Amino acid sequence: GMMFDRAGMLWATAESSNSLVVIDPVRGAVVGNVAIGSQRTHWLAITPDGNKIYAPHRALTHVSVVDVASREVIGRIPNFIYECQGIAVAPDGNRVYQASSARPRIDVIDPKTDKVVAGAMVAAMPDVPPQLTRLRVSPDNRHLVMTFHVTGQVAVFDTQDLNRQHLFASGKGT
After folding, report:
1. Residue 161 above 70 pLDDT?
2. Mean pLDDT rounded to a whole number for the chain
3. Distances from the Cα of 43 to the Cα of 158, 164, 166, 167, 168, angstroms
4. How far apart are CA 136 and CA 147, in angstroms?
5. How far apart are CA 5 and CA 25, in angstroms?
6. What is the pLDDT of residues 131-159, one digit of tens each?
7. How far apart are CA 117 and CA 120, in angstroms?
8. Which of 5, 38, 53, 78 would disulfide-bridge 57, Cβ 3.0–4.6 Å?
9. Does 173 score more than 70 pLDDT?
10. Element (H, E) at 45
11. Which whole number is the average pLDDT over 41-56?
12. Measuring CA to CA, which residue among 33, 84, 42, 39 is closest to residue 63?
């Protein structure tokens, strides 16, 4: 995964080196590295205020929290039921959504406390590994979209009530 911070630096996951790298695209140079201790981190999300990065670990059951200014891991959000995969921050910055790669499940993180405050299974899907889940939040913060690469399905959640959801086919490779 790759995202720009507010200073224009490009942050990217570097799965094989167990880290996130910081790239200055103007100079074309790596200017920083944050060791996060997992080979299977391939997504990240930056908060709208640019202060934190959330990096889920696909082979583990926690999300690392990185302080952008200090370029250090400042926390780990533990105890997710299944492996972590997709990650998205709401445009208003009030919620972080984390998706499992092992089950059709999402969890909601409060970025003020970095604690899990809610979670939900995709009700219409069997409890099987959907794999390669992606998350996006609508610009108005009202909907969370979760895609499933292997099953070729998309789930749309109401962010005010995660039990209000729709699942539909979109084709494999979504």
Report:
1. yes
2. 87
3. 23, 26, 24, 23, 24
4. 9
5. 12
6. 667 899 999 999 999 887 777 888 999 99
7. 11
8. 38
9. no
10. strand 45-46
11. 91
12. 84
Q: At 14, is the pLDDT very low, low, confident or very high (cuts 50, 70, 90)? A: confident
- The residue whose two tokens read 């972080």 is 96
Q: Let me know: does 138 contact 145? Beta carbons within 8 Å.
A: yes
Contact, 40 vs 29, CB < 8 A?
no
- Residue 15 has phi, psi (to 5 degrees) of -55, -45
Give pLDDT, residue 57.
Answer: 78
Report whether 161 contacts 123 (CB < 8 A). Answer: no
**pLDDT value at 174 more than 60:** no
For 16, phi and psi rounded to 5 degrees?
Answer: -75, -20
* Residue 36, C-beta contacts closer than 8 angstroms, at least 6 positions apart: 18, 19, 20, 55, 57, 64, 66, 73
Q: Which residues lie below 8 Å from residue 152, measured CB to CB, with a gap of 6+?
A: 169, 170, 171, 172, 173, 174
* Residue that is written with structure tokens 């790759």 in the block: 2
Query: Of 45 and 103, which is predicted with more confidence?
Result: 45
Distances (CA, A) of 142 to 19, 35, 99, 137: 32, 34, 17, 8
For the whole prediction, is pTM greater than 0.70? yes
Alpha helices in the chain (DSSP H): none
Cα–Cα distance for residue pair 106/111, rounded to 1 Å: 15
